[in-house]
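BUG: 3D viewer hangs when loading the predicted structure for this chain

Environment: internal workstation, default settings.
Expected: structure renders.
Actual: progress bar stalls at 90%.

Input used:
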Amino acid sequence: MTRILLVRHGEATKGPSIADPELTDLGRQQAGELARTLAPSRPLTLTSSPKTRARQTAQPLADIWQCPVNIESAVTELPSPEDVPLSKRGQWIRALLASDWDTQDERQLRWRMGILNYLLGLEEDTVIFCHFMVINSIVAHIRNDRRTQQFRPDYTSVTELQLTGGGLELIRLGAERDSRIL
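Structure tokens produced before the viewer hung:
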């Protein structure tokens, strides 16, 4: 049995032209609070999306546990379609949230399968610092639910999974965000 904690990154700088935002002051505070909350448990393997906001969220816990953060591209942010410019990504994401996984293009489906394959291959208990859509894609898979959006994980919320007998089980959803803004 492998325990998997999916952590949504802390609050990041927003803007239609920021491709890889850093954490805001509040986001750094959230990362520190999360680290203090998880610190008393035994150290687990730490993995992060390559995106700056996820790495910055992981670092305070890595500092406390004195362990490295493995960077894993499989848990990076959902890729936009090739023809969607960064300035239109927010609009595209909002439309995506109201749709189903089976209506997405090949790029998004490959991304989703990559996350699933990565998680199914884990052999050690792991904390994964990732993104809103990573968490939603896995929860949808576990629930066998076509809807893209399953819930609105808050910043630094922890969704707990268990890998047993080759399958993923949802133990607990992370805290949900109140606002409609990602």
